[in-house]
Automatic annotation (TrEMBL):
This is Quinone oxidoreductase. It holds the Pfam family ADH_zinc_N. PROSITE patterns: QOR_ZETA_CRYSTAL (PS01162). Residues 11-322 form the Enoyl reductase (ER) domain. Keywords: NADP, Oxidoreductase.
Amino acid sequence: MVHAIRIHETGGPEVLRWEEVEVGEPGPGQVRLRHTAVGLNYIDTYHRTGAYKVPLPSGLGLEGAGVVEAVGPDVTEYKAGDRVAYCTGPIGAYSEVRLMPTDKLIPLPSWIEDRQAAAMMLQGLTAQFLLRQTYVVKPGDTILVQAAAGGVGQILCQWAKHLGATVIGTVSTDEKAELARANGCDHPIVYTRESFLERVKDITAGKGVPVVYDGVGKTTFMDGLDCLAPRGLMALFGAASGPVPPLDLQLLAAKGSLYVTRPTLFVYMQKREDLMAAAADLFDVVNSGGVTIRIGQTFPLKDAADAHRALESRGTTGSTILVP
């Protein structure tokens, strides 16, 4: 019998239960996958709390890496022993073994370790679509990254720097400022001590930035709008501090004919060809050394509740891995 983290009700980290589960044989279009590493992401807390609704009882987690144990009767593209990763669900990655649809799997190059893969897929592909599709960062751009020391933030800063941009980033402590700087952030701003809006205006000589990448939400959104240059883009990709209140669209006109988008990984990677192309782009930039994936914390999978507490208290940096 294998184990998985399950939730039977929404709430705090205490609702996460380590339970025995049955995993059958893979059916058509499926493989049975034994996880070697599972990625922790902020969206997992939204599912746990009910901010994003899931049918209960439910598993948790959207990202993992591991080894194929068995394949369904019609599966020809994978075989037992293949190393794969995924990051667009279905939900249930917090498990030792699970069944997975083959169209969600990404074959892993030999040079990528399993834990590195579990740390990079969701956050790395999020950075890919933000930087390469939502707003295409160009050499000479100056951009703003909120939560620059977080998992997505570190990748955004490195990749944007690799693309030739000047990177401004917000962080909560001096220690995180040094971490952000080490990951390509030219101007880390400790927002708990100074106004990031004023600093952005100073750094850009009052011009503002063409894009703000904001995964924080409620506490940063309005000042982030004021950091934008005319016709700039607010890319709101998360809500770590809570959802943004309803917005009067007339404000976008008053603040400079601004654009706002709420992009999601699951739409950008909906087609398999888009998923594979984005993954290839991510693998290339990591293999070239343009982006280094840093695992900041590792927890046993059965202690996922402790990992959630650390994440929600902003006690983590970089990527966090759960190990079965």
